Amino acid sequence: MPATLLLVHGAWHGSWCWERLTGALGGVAVRTVDLPSVGTDPAALGGLYDDADAVRAALAGIEGPVVVVGHSYGGAVVTEAVRADSGVAHLVYLCAFQLDEGDSLLGSVGGEGPPWWEATGPAIAVRSPEQVFYNGVAPELTESAVARLGLQSRASAEQPLTNVAWRSVPSTYVVCEQDQAIPVVAQEAMSARAGEVLRMDAGHSPFLSHPAELAGLLRPIVDRAG
């Protein structure tokens, strides 16, 4: 049975960010999920565990093998969500946080957010997303993406992992060499936990800047999983 690709977005984003990649994947069955840690109302945002529940709910609705892609913060979500009996054949960490048990996103960056985080109360906004997220992305796509960014819950960055999917499910890490959000040296350190490491000459959002190239990396993984 052919595998399904489940795409899990990163912080501040939504499933809208995958539209160009989905188009480039052609006949691959693709599902997406919107994480409750992202939104416009700071008081209504969920945390990491709510996001993991949303991914588990999405997996429960898919028959057959699944390849799960986590982008950026989404890597922490899929690590928490996926268990050995989840029906997931492979994990892909796309310039993502491939963390260990007890780690949190905030802890992994030294306990203090980077200067482009704008934290107020229970929510975090992002400064200069054009430079941080979208270097290498066409100006009109960047403008559209920036307009759709939401707030990110502080809880999603603070809650520690209680489950480590990559210990029981095979994984691939995709290092994005022009990333301005997660330094390459940090990506390479986390990628040591993956069974396979691939590389792209792209910024933090290759699904917008290089959708065909990213689809070309993902398709063989999906084919092997089916």
Automatic annotation (TrEMBL):
Can you give the residue ranges of the AB hydrolase-1 domain?
A: 5-215
InterPro entries of this UniProt entry? Answer: AB_hydrolase_1 (IPR000073), AB_hydrolase_fold (IPR029058), Sec-Metab_Biosynth_Hydrolase (IPR052897)
Q: Which residues form a coiled coil?
A: none
Q: Which SUPFAM superfamilies match?
A: alpha/beta-Hydrolases
Q: Domain of life of the organism in this record?
A: Bacteria
Q: Which GO terms describe its molecular function?
A: catalytic activity
Q: Where is the signal peptide?
A: none
Q: What is this protein called?
A: Pimeloyl-ACP methyl ester carboxylesterase
Give the species this sequence originates from. Geodermatophilus sabuli
